[in-house]
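Hello again,

I reread your note about wanting to compare the complex against the isolated chains. To keep things tidy I'm splitting this into two emails, and this first one only covers the full assembly. Below are the input lines as submitted, including protein chains and any nucleic acid or small-molecule components. They are followed by the predicted structure of everything together. The single-chain runs will come separately.
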Amino acid sequence: MTNSIDDIADEAKAFFIIGSNTTETHPVIGYRIRRAVKNGAKLIVADPRRIKIAEKADVFLQLKPGTNAALLQGMARVIIDEELYDAEFIKNRTEGFEEYAEKIRAIDLNEMADITGVPAEKITQAARIYAGSDPAAILYTMGITQHTSGTDNVLALAGLATLTGNMGKRGGGVNPLRGQNNVQGACDMGALPNVFPGYQPVSSPEANQKFSEAYGAKIPDKPGMPMTKMFKAALEDKIKGVYIMGENPVVSEPDICKIKDALEKLELVVVQDLFFTETADYADVVLPAASFAEKDGTFVNTERRIQRGRKAINPPGEARSDFEILCKLGLKLGLKGFEFKKPGEVMQEVAELSPKWKGITYERLEEGGICWPCPDENHPGTPILYEEKFLTGSGKAQFKPVDYKPPAETPDQDYPFILTTGRSLYHYHTGTMTRRSDGLSDLYNVEKALISKEDAERMGLNENDKVRLTSRRGEVEAEVKPVSDLKEGIVFMTFHFAETCANQLTNSELDPVANIPELKVCAINLEKV
Amino acid sequence: MMLKITINGLDIEVEKGITVFEAAEQAGIYIPPLCHHPDLPTFGGCRICMVDADGKIVTACRAPVKDGMIVKTDTEEVRKVRLTNVELILASHNKDCQGCSRNNSCRLQEVSAFVGINQDRMRKIRRSVEAVKPDDSNPFFHRDFTRCILCGICIRTCEEINGVAAIDFAFRGFHTRVSVLGDKPLKDSKCESCGECLVRCPTGALYLAKPALVEREVESVCTYCGVGCGVKIGVRGDRVIKVDGNRDNPVNRGDLCVKGRFGFDFINHPERLKKPKIKKDGIFVEATWDEALDFIADKMHDIKAKHGADALGAISSARCSNEENYLFQKIFRALGTNNVDHCARL
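Full-complex prediction:
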């Protein structure tokens, strides 16, 4: 997030939630938004599904899956036509407005309405609310990013926020709500193929030299493979061994049949987890890890706040924390610099090598945590990014116009429905943890593929009827639930349930920049079993 | 703007706009509260916080302070009104305190003791408790209608804290109770099972399905989504038996969702992996840590020697700590590959 939860929840005059089922996937932020709306803040919600937060919306835009950029370009057109933008901000803090505006003026709002399935009046209304509320905060999640056009969608959102001067100020910003407890931290720590800890590019000669010296090895200056490509590479014999820590790709990755084939082909598969997951079946070695309650360490939340996690109990049996396992493995591999006694010592090394984390120590984290960047020990942290300047050469925000591109796969005669996937309030990811809760399972334990009432009626389907869902990649059987929250031709499933695994169907086509798969749109067929 | 008021003869300066209840609280003077909760808007329904303000009996939680106001919290009339109101609540309240989850931490007990309930008199005026079956449909917390005092805290919590507004008062008069639309079981309503109402219930009307009295608490961060709510992990023996929201945490200030508050069974689950295992001839066989790690290290060196370090792929975890993610990428980069990633895109 460019901003903090507090400043947007307390100070935004309007929220634009797009591609985020906030009350189910980030419930506590959902509470804050519902409270803010009750206290008078405006709310725009854009989603293919009439999600719960849409009930509170001033305007709800039920767009077709995969048409985010068209909707956002349409809004930009209205803002430029009606001169609702922040001219002073544009003049002082941005570059490239004229070219951007020219490109946006070439967009036909009615065409965007046709593409998205959202009437032009509603797009106009949303644009007026967003641009007319100062400040206004954008919140999004995977509904924006899990597309072959994911990067463009984010750029289009950033364009709107820049256009309206909603960057670098309280109550505004572009705020991706991160889905997992430490997805932000895993990125910050360089668990990415192209960057070292603190987003220092592996291709930067200075950074590469610094880390190569620190790690006592020559680290390649070419980015490595993202996970989405590793399994494809395994099928081509380019990858021979994978080490999987705390991840269950056999349920969570798109196009699972291929993932299974790849895992079977590998010479070495290590799975380190709390439970014997679906992926563990394919492992050569399974290592028992400790849960969050059984270890010390730090985690970064969606607002970049680094917080302390503390050990409450011992792990069961011989299970060990990932920290202990990795230190021991490093030494077994004959590597230098793995003689850590406790996680706090690792944090010292992170602070030494990563300027954004330089001021972080365990002692300083005792009081409520610190939002990075935190460049020195006296720095209070940075809850709001870009207050003074942007991270560009000139320090100014650059407008980047984008073009709407349709999803990689669109419905046709053989596969006439669009499947879009997401999460439920009651489960988390592949259910490794939540499905072992009797209570959560009591509340939700059988996947229901949601279909529109119109489709259900046309096909003679009733609630709990079993259907076979097929795509070009696989098939799965599940019960259906007809709902009024979906438009005709759209099907929704979660990916929590291995037995009705939606990712048998999903498309592994990637966004060319971010390498994120298009999990939110694929073409499927549906038939009664 | 500051106002001068007198409470029980003490001169107090308070800010304009606050209530008599809040003024007394600031001055350290106890006024018994039942339906009042600091997180929630005032309701003023229980009539226990009655005080004498400038000669009139008023509800302290609703009366704004006025300059020169003279407040008396313990006159004979105030005592009488409070006592009568508590007696009326107790008359139809389940009298089995020992069997109640909130025994010794119950607001009604605290208030009853303060106003001075006379047990002989209670025996005379106590009615039989209406036999309404508890709502035990929700797997995490149940509602015992015989212990509900209709303070409305749960209703206001659902509306103001969570925002889902799943419950409200239903029926009238003596039959009034808290219910969901259509008087269905809670589980079949739009309730999101967050348990915020349970946390704020002043009596044992809302209670945990599995009682959980903890020995110690450890401050940590929730392990589910990216909001990063502060939690207090409640431990008894070597088991996690409860998770509470940490009100001192700046992220959630105590709020939690259903997963964060109740979804901790996995920690002590019998299916947890407890020993390293190596697959031999298609069957997993238990191994020591040394055997398992030697096996992995040898194999990794072997792959690197034969095919280069880029034949290794490393999948880290968005659920592991920063330190663990750091060490993970360090291992593989030190081995000579940038094939390091995690589930950020899923």
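For quick reference: The first strand of chain B starts at residue 2 and ends at 7.

B.
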